[in-house]
Amino acid sequence: MAFKIIASQCTQCGACEFECPSSAIKFKGEIYVIDPKKCTECKEAFDTQQCASVCPVPGTCIPA
């Protein structure tokens, strides 16, 4: 499974893109998206998902 970004809640701050250890988050058009093929949910590297931990809006980066 991968994480996804709720576009309507995203402030487009970009914090998640730089924190993602698998480079799965990119800015496309006017929103940030998570590539499910690249997203590892940070399972190998961290105890928590980095996108969700740095996001200023709780519940924006969620399991897909």
TrEMBL record:
<keyword id="KW-0004">4Fe-4S</keyword>
<dbReference type="Pfam" id="PF12838">
    <property type="entry name" value="Fer4_7"/>
</dbReference>
<keyword id="KW-0479">Metal-binding</keyword>
<dbReference type="InterPro" id="IPR017900">
    <property type="entry name" value="4Fe4S_Fe_S_CS"/>
</dbReference>
<dbReference type="GO" id="GO:0051539">
    <property type="term" value="F:4 iron, 4 sulfur cluster binding"/>
</dbReference>
<protein>
    <submittedName>
        <fullName>Ferredoxin</fullName>
    </submittedName>
</protein>
<feature type="domain" description="4Fe-4S ferredoxin-type">
    <location>
        <begin position="1"/>
        <end position="30"/>
    </location>
</feature>
<keyword id="KW-0249">Electron transport</keyword>
<keyword id="KW-0411">Iron-sulfur</keyword>
<keyword id="KW-0408">Iron</keyword>
<dbReference type="InterPro" id="IPR017896">
    <property type="entry name" value="4Fe4S_Fe-S-bd"/>
</dbReference>
<dbReference type="GO" id="GO:0046872">
    <property type="term" value="F:metal ion binding"/>
</dbReference>
<keyword id="KW-0813">Transport</keyword>
